[in-house]
Amino acid sequence: MFVIHAYLAKSSNPYSYERLASELGTYFDFETKNGLEIGTSTNPFTKQKYAILNWPGWNFTAHFETGRNVEADANYIASVVEDCPPEIKDCTDRIRFVFSADERRDFTNHIIWAIDYLLEIPDAIIFDESQKTIIRLIQG
């Protein structure tokens, strides 16, 4: 399992689960020919909906989260990650992608595409949970 967070600055366009699901459907539309199906599920504890992007043999979930838990996580990240943008402390919304295991690396491109989607969000701060690092867009 691999998890990426996008902390959304207050200056970002407002997000919701519905916006996230719609944008991901459009963004990954080219993958429907490869078996992509997009579904919805609900967290039984919080009752929050999340999207499931499912290919044959692999999937990832996309969550839009807001509130105190997001704020607490952002403050923790700011305290432990070197060179973390200080504006992360002002974030109360995030998008979280949870990727299934991909030992054979058959879906590396899919992970890259998903991270690219997050990098395109203005003012988003992208955090790789496993590496405990901020992902920065490399200008080329």
Describe what this molecule looks like in 3D.
This protein has 140 residues and is α+β, with helices and mostly antiparallel strands. The chain is built from three helices and seven strands, in the order E-H-E-E-E-H-E-H-E-E. Strands 2-3-4-5-1-6-7 form a seven-stranded antiparallel beta sheet. It is globular, with a radius of gyration of 15 Å. The model has no long low-confidence stretch (mean pLDDT 92).
Strand tally is 7
Structural class category: alpha+beta
Report the C-alpha radius of gyration, rounded.
15 Å
Poorly predicted ranges: none
Sheet of most strands: 7 strands, antiparallel
* Terminus-to-terminus distance: 30 Å
Percent helix, as a range, is 25-40%
Write down the secondary-structure element order: EHEEEHEHEE
Mean pLDDT: 92
- How many individual helices? 3
* Percentage of β-strand residues: 25-35%
The global form is: globular
Physical arrangement of strands within the biggest beta sheet: 2-3-4-5-1-6-7
Features:
alpha+beta, 7-stranded antiparallel beta sheet
